[in-house]
């Protein structure tokens, strides 16, 4: 493809000294193989398949997803849908596992009918939510893999005439700036995206300077941000 050809040209001409990759561009191994061939240092952010030979920075996707699911369970929700993101991103798998771990902790059976694959976009979240509501109209909460999809879910359930959070709760992941500007504000997990980039660049500079890196793996903590889109489920449904 043109973009790959351009990258090959930049690498072969030594137009840069190092590279920081972000998902999903690492998913097929092309960039990593190319940079190894030309001996260009690489630091990855949230790689699909972490390698001991390649430094990387990642967020606590598993724990963040588990925490927000536990939040919904503690409120009393038992039918919680999950909008799963792209299959070429590690975060999608880790967030699904975190969701499942929280259900297991509360002894709630995993229901595959409450899982819907979706693109991590507004339209993806909207479409997935409409499909879910047709299939499982009695669900009381939706946990979207990221905030963009959660925005689409919010629009879809309100279009269906459901009040958020009185009749259904909606949560996301990432804590994008818009998540606190919409109404109701989105309950989500704060992902330190900027800090991950800063850490990755610092690691790369250290590699280029020949410094010894304390650890080739840096995991940055996430935190739950509770806003107005989550509340206990309606008594009549539960």
Distance between the ends? 52 Å
Task: Specify the structural class.
Answer: alpha/beta
What's the rounded overall pLDDT mean?
A: 89
Q: How many strands, what sense, and barrel or not for the largest sheet?
A: 4 strands, parallel
> Total number of β-strand segments?
10
Shape annotation: elongated
Task: Give me the number of helical elements.
Answer: 7
> Roughly how much helix do the residues carry, as a percent range?
25-40%
Low-confidence stretches: none
Topology as H/E string? HEHEEHEHEHEHEEHEE
Beta-strand content: 15-25%
Radius of gyration, taken over Cα atoms and rounded to an integer in Å: 20 Å
* Widest β-sheet, arrangement of strands: 1-2-3-9
Structure commentary:
Strand 1 (19-21), helix 2 and strand 2 form a beta-alpha-beta unit. The radius of gyration is 20 Å and the shape is elongated. The mean pLDDT is 89. By secondary structure, the chain is of the alpha/beta class. The chain has a four-stranded parallel β-sheet with strand order 1-2-3-9, with helices on both faces. Strands 5-4-6-7 form a four-stranded parallel β-sheet, sandwiched between helices. The chain contains seven helices and ten strands. Helix 3 packs parallel to helix 4 and helix 5 packs across helix 6 (147-159).
Topology:
Elements: H1 2-12, E1 19-21, H2 30-37, E2 42-45, E3 56-59, H3 61-75, E4 80-84, H4 90-105, E5 115-117, H5 122-135, E6 141-144, H6 147-159, E7 169-171, E8 188-190, H7 193-208, E9 217-220, E10 223-225
Parallel strand pairs: 1-2, 2-3, 3-9, 4-5, 4-6, 6-7
Antiparallel strand pairs: 8-10
Helix pairs in contact: 3-4, 5-6
